[in-house]
Amino acid sequence: MVSCFNLRPIKTVNKASDSPKWDASCIALRTQSELEAELKKTRIIKKGAGRKTKLSFEEQILLTLIYLRQLTTFQLLGIQFGVSETTVNDTFNYWFPLLGKLLPPSLFEQVKKRI
Predict the structure, then answer these.
(1) d(Cα 66, Cα 72) in Å, to the nearest integer?
(2) pLDDT digits (tens, 9 = 90+) for 58-97
(3) How far apart are CA 102 and CA 20, in angstroms?
(4) Structure pTM?
(5) b/e map of 33-66 (b: 16 or more CB within 10 Å)?
(6) Residue (of 87, 59, 79, 99) closest to 115 by Cα position
(7) Pick from 90, 89, 110: which is nearest to 100 by CA?
(8) Alpha-carbon span 61 to 41, nearest angstrom
């Protein structure tokens, strides 16, 4: 199973441009312009700082897929995963467009018609 969840740059640095190279498996989730913008950022806060997520990446994708398959309420999903309804809503709205890029168009269109 290929993991697309590692969005950190690889430690090696290209000597010509002195910018880190991105893991090829992550490019499926981000567009080239987003990657370029990320590389140009001047960080004020240390990378990795901030609030930790309540759900792992696997749980976030599972939550999204369960919603798409069963069309249950965000409130019920929040109870099942032990998070708030707002967290479920934010998680779904983050992963839905990304999964739309990865799923075959025919399957994704079927899901969009049901929602």
Answers:
(1) 8
(2) 999 999 999 988 989 999 999 999 999 999 999 999 999 8
(3) 25
(4) 0.57
(5) eeeeeeeeeeeeeeeeeeeeeebeeeebbebbeb
(6) 99
(7) 110
(8) 27
